[in-house]
Design goal:
Largest sheet: 4 strands, mixed
Mean pLDDT: 88
Strand content: 5-15%
Structural class: alpha+beta
Order of helices and strands: EEHEEEHEHEEHHHHHHH
Number of strands: 8
Oligomer: single chain
Strand order of the largest sheet: 5-6-8-7
Distance between the termini: 22 Å
Radius of gyration: 25 Å
Length: 331
Amino acid sequence: METRKVQLTGGSTYTVSLPKSWATENDVSAGSEVEFHSEEDSLLLTPKTESERTEGTLDITDLEGDRLTRAVMTMYVSGFDRISLEGTKITSDQRRAIRSATQSLVGVEVLEETSDRVVLQDLLDSSELSITNAVTRMRLIAESMLEDAVTALVENDEDLALDVIERDDDVDRLWFVVSRIFRATLRSPRAARELGLPREDCFDYHSSARQLERIADHAAKIGQLTRKLDDVPEEVAAEIESLHDDAAEIVDRAMDALLADDSSTSTELAHEARESILDLDERTRHVDELLRELDPHEAQLLGLIVDSLSRSADYGGNIAETALQKAAPRP
């Protein structure tokens, strides 16, 4: 850390010198323009750039399948607006993996394609995306998935179970959007300012979005297990429905706490959500006792479903904990 003494120039202007090493590394010289970003009692300085859109190149010669798909997603989340994928000769399998990646990302399209190069372009302006809206949309989809997954189980509706599984892709796409926006706020004070949110709030939304993504994964898991089961005994079905209602209430209350504008309301809702988990754990143990009377294979599958509902409630508890931190006074 370096310190500088503030000086008064011309009787009305405060000035401070820049460290030469920092200026050299960031191509700042006499006549350069810099930007100041105010964050409460802090003032951040960055070099002024002509464009915030970034380009990145990735050598995919040795990448294929899931590894290639994951690499493209990582480039997107890292904030690249234009991604050049290059190799000696891009194979058909690699092109399929690239297409799979673009279909899993919001606003990404193939801009150029040759034998040794594929260029992807993010057609959305990240500065216009709302992290709050993305998280809210994730909430709606994840909660509806969990409800429909249990309905599919109780009613033995295989088509509904399949629909739940397919909706998991929608949540994943939104999760990548939230991750991209969050990382942008870490890199650039301008990104946080354009969102109109403190970076601490962006972290809280990102953390909660991760919990929602996991809840959606468990809803999809319930859908997959449902397709392996026949009719569920009425007593067990009723208990699982009740368990879902309790878990969904925890998640719903936690999200209300996270999004509440009033800190006292947020704190009260978050505490209620956290305290409800103890009652749900007791109900979970009761359902597990009922499963012991069933066929071992059926009991195992239903036990996994009960575990997914319990874990979903725990993820709701994590969101509630984040809401408490968000509502707490800041130093």
